[in-house]
Amino acid sequence: PAPPRDAPRPPAPPPRPSLLRFRTTAGDVDVRVNDTRCPKSAAQLRALVASGFLDQRLALWRVNRWICQFGADKSPAARKRDGEPTDPFAAVRRSFGNDAHPDCGAGPCEGGLAPWRRGDLALIGSTALLFVRGPNKQMGTNRNDCAVAGVVDGLAVLDRLDESYGNMIDHKRGLAQKEIFKTGLEGVLRDFPKTDILEGVSWVPEGR
Predict the structure, then answer these.
(1) Dist. CA 71–CA 28, nearest whole Å
(2) pLDDT higher for 19 or 137?
(3) pLDDT of residue 187 exceeding 80
(4) β strands within 25-180, DSSP E
(5) What secondary structure letter does DSSP report for 94?
(6) 58, 201 contact by CB (below 8 A)
(7) 67 C-beta neighbours (distance < 10 Å), count
(8) How many other C-beta atoms are found inside a 10 Å radius of the C-beta of residue 79?
(9) Three-state secondary structure call for residue 8
(10) In whole angstroms, what is the distance from residue 156 CA to residue 29 CA?
(11) How far apart are CA 145 and CA 48, in angstroms?
(12) What is the C-alpha separation between 31 and 21, in angstroms, rounded?
């Protein structure tokens, strides 16, 4: 039977949080997730948070004047080698699709797309993230490039992340990505002990 007309309505569910804090050894960085503009990427980022993937201590370093990169975790093959029976993050390693660049609008996506901006957080693979330190006309201009979030507090943290790891292209140093997949954070810190670490993430209530 239908409830009486004067029956109290159930409370509305609380709004989904959109402010996400990255806790690093160099300080906190708060970003706002772009659920409306980048729904597929945002859903994947939320899945990474919910799975605990971003709480397993990942390396985070300044690559160059344009980007800060997150280190990879151990691959499923490396986990199996080390006696871990299952990959706890198998579900979030799947392909999640792509969101159109905001400049594409509702029509076809052609040339002249704006690059990522300073403070953008980009999801460049199912579990691969990077922060943008400075705009580069060659980054973020693909038709499928949609920044999943943007920094609202802590931008200066990106500028003081350790850069001793560097990268093989700009600095001719640093582990090749395939080596990170074999060792995870352990291999990075063995050779570059000053490398900063993403210690975890958490949703932050508005106004805090």
Answers:
(1) 17
(2) 19
(3) no
(4) 27-33, 58-62, 67-70, 120-123, 129-132, 149-153
(5) S
(6) no
(7) 21
(8) 17
(9) coil
(10) 9
(11) 19
(12) 6
Residue type at position 43: A
For the chain, the helix, strand and coil percentages under 3-state DSSP, each to the nearest 5: 25, 20, 55
At 116, which amino acid appears? W
Query: What pLDDT sits at residue 23?
Result: 98
Q: What's the pLDDT score for residue 167?
A: 59
Copy the structure tokens of residue 177. 């990505």
pLDDT band at 168 (very low <50, low <70, confident <90, very high): low
Q: Which residue has the tokens 């996506």?
A: 109
Which SS3 state, helix, strand or coil, does residue 73 take? coil
Q: Is 161 helix (H, G, I), strand (E, B) or coil?
A: coil
What does the block give as tokens for 143?
Answer: 């038709």
Dihedral (CA of 200, 71, 191, 162) sign: negative
Contact 69, 130 (CB under 8 A): yes
Alpha helices in the chain (DSSP H): 39-51, 76-81, 155-160, 177-183, 185-191
